[in-house]
Specification:
By secondary structure, the chain is mainly alpha-helical. The chain has two domains: 2-155, no CATH class; 158-203. It is 82% helix and 0% strand. The chain contains nine helices and no strands.
Length: 203
């Protein structure tokens, strides 16, 4: 990503923060891209992790404040301008109610809930201290998982590319073999049907 190349860990903080209060920003993609860059020696992985966690916590707390002080009416009235429709909000709210406070932790790993869990917690009146604790735990786990994936994939990118290329050729070979087998079967069936038709006509 160009923004990561130009602005480094600040871009990670900004993208994650914006995504986490409902804005259409590629926070997760930016975190992974920055972790891959860190594996290549272009960024410090601990700086990437810190920026990701900070962005996640700040973004979700902005969302919480929006939900707490603005209420659901404000969200449903203006949210559609940013892709937050009434249907999307209602779906996320139902999931939040069904699984309780603990959803704040797991919400980070679920698309849509990651962007809306702070806003929903605020509109539903969840205590801020409880939200902050659950949210911080979720942020640490989420950043830890995806930064590790990006970092270790980055370190082994040549190996991964080699295996991908190998399996791509194997997949292509399998497709060709399957296609040839299908063609032979169809050819034999056509020959059998032609012989049977000729036998019936001669008989």
């Amino acid at each position: 990503m160009h923004i990561i190349e130009h602005y480094g860990v600040f871009a990670v903080f900004l993208l994650v923060m914006l995504e986490d209060f409902g804005m259409p920003a590629p926070g997760e993609t930016g975190l992974i891209a920055a972790s891959v860059a860190a594996a290549a020696g272009k960024l410090n992985i601990w700086a990437v992790v810190f920026a990701g966690i900070a962005g996640a916590i700040v973004g979700d707390n902005i969302g919480y404040a929006i939900g707490h002080f603005g209420g659901r009416k404000l969200i449903t009235r203006f949210g559609s301008r940013f892709g937050l429709t009434e249907e999307r909000y209602a779906h996320a709210e139902t999931t939040f109610c069904r699984y309780g406070d603990g959803i704040v932790v797991g919400a980070r790993f679920v698309e849509l809930l990651r962007q809306l869990n702070g806003i929903i917690a605020g509109t539903m009146g969840m205590h801020w201290a409880k939200f902050l604790a659950f949210n911080a735990l979720g942020a640490v786990l989420w950043v830890g998982v995806w930064s590790s994936v990006g970092y270790f994939a980055g370190e082994n990118r040549k190996v991964i590319e080699a295996w991908f290329l190998r399996f791509s050729w194997l997949a292509l070979f399998a497709v060709l073999v399957a296609g040839l087998a299908w063609w032979l079967v169809r050819r034999r069936q056509a020959a059998t049907e032609a012989a049977k038709s000729a036998a019936e006509q001669s008989g």
